[in-house]
Amino acid sequence: MITTSQHPSAITAQVMENLEVAPGHYRMSLCLPDFFDLPHPGQFVMIREPGREEPLLSRPFSVYGFRKENDQGILDLLYRVVGRGTAFFSHLREKSSVSVLGPLGKGFTMPTSVRNAVLVAGGVGVAPLNFLLQQFHERASDFREVGITAYVGARTSALLVGMDRLEGFCDLRVSTDDGSLGYRGAVTDLLERDLGSYPQDTTWIYGCGPSGMILSLSRLVRPTSLRCQVSLEERMACGFGACLGCAVKTTDSQGVTNYRRVCSEGPVFDIRELSQI
Ligand SMILES: Cc1cc2nc3c(=O)[nH]c(=O)nc-3n(C[C@H](O)[C@H](O)[C@H](O)COP(=O)(O)OP(=O)(O)OC[C@H]3O[C@@H](n4cnc5c(N)ncnc54)[C@H](O)[C@@H]3O)c2cc1C
Ligand code: FES
Description:
Layout: E1 11-22, E2 25-32, E3 44-48, E4 59-62, E5 65-69, E6 72-80, H1 84-90, E7 97-104, E8 116-122, H2 126-138, H3 140-143, E9 147-154, E10 171-176, E11 183-184, H4 187-194, E12 203-208, H5 211-221, E13 227-231, E14 247-251, E15 257-261, H6 262-265, E16 268-270
Parallel strand pairs: 8-9, 8-12, 9-10, 10-11, 12-13
Antiparallel strand pairs: 1-2, 1-7, 2-6, 3-4, 3-7, 5-6, 13-16, 14-15
């Protein structure tokens, strides 16, 4: 796992599949050499098309799924096309080469004392939480007693991605802004209705989504003693701690303010540490 500003080297992976799963949303599966480290949920990779000069910088994506198959690692990403980098990626075809740096950063804490894991996702924020769910199931001997509930929101039902990997694997609660599926409104409003039913000492909330969702989650959780970690999706340049381009302001439990790098000291933070939200 790379957590400091050492200069890691990228490896070349081959695209196995790059499928449009919803309008403007793609699932890309990459075939990696066996020595690629097993990622931890919440970690991410930096992706770039080798040899292409534009866009110059690699782009960060959370690990959406990972498995070993025939001595190779299969890494799944789930991404939304928002600009030039993601538009380039959406045109990659089977057998294209991609440069991959990672797994990077620090992921979610999975304490064995947890009894309720509550996942809260907005849009493609479902990606790292899906991998977290997968890991809770794969490490069943440690997490047999954990009840997992996923709250997943999107603007409209057509943009609810990653549902195939949630349905049947957790208690799934869905919201859409337009009411086309599930609860009509924000995913955090849906969570708010249930929040009092979760025991405060054994429940962990894990979130990922747009900044507005993280802000609402912070307002919900702060008055409680529920543990809550969120994965941030700051803009990044180097991705491994060298450029300071991704720093966020944090305040620890003693009130000490600091700037921490999302790429190497995150992207997962305790929500109460984040002073900017
Ligand atoms: C740790 C981490 C994990 C991520 N995981 C995923 C993931 O699993 N799936 C996914 O779809 N995206 C994810 N992102 C966001 C993704 O990296 C950006 O959407 C991508 O870099 C945009 O590249 P681009 O060249 O297409 O857009 P650009 O041309 O760079 O930007 C296009 C537009 O998108 C905005 N934008 C760019 N990056 C971000 C960002 N990080 N947050 C908000 N707005 C942004 C820009 O301000 C601009 O308006 C993650 C980001 C981080 C830091
Ligand atoms: S992106 Fe360079 S330090 Fe985080």
